[in-house]
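WARN retry 2 of 3 for item q-0093 after timeout on previous attempt; input resubmitted unchanged.
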Amino acid sequence: MAIIIPESELEESFIRASGPGGQNVNKVSSAVQLRFDARGSASLPDDVAVRLMRLAGSRLTRDGVIIITADRFRTQERNRADARERLQALVAAAEVRPVKRRPTKPSKGQKEKRLAGKAVRSGVKQGRSKIRDAD
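OK item q-0093 returned
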């Protein structure tokens, strides 16, 4: 089930980019700063929102707002699309429920194989030691 974030929950602002663009960089605000309130979003289930905020890392503010800055491209349109794709990828990653680990015990055969390997290794190391004279 793909979560669709409505346009009304996204806030975009345009800033000057430092990337490609030559002298045009100093005149045009082509970088996009996309803000998404993960904590207050009605379109996200609670468990997904928690995982999303954990995945966001340093892009998350104290208020629970995720800020994605896109300045890879020279045009505003491509940077907008890039920021939205990155947010969508983050949400898609947060949608995946982590699988609970079931603790298991090693089988008898695995234990025996491990101990046999240790015995072989021990023999190799013993063979490297100095030979003592039998007096």
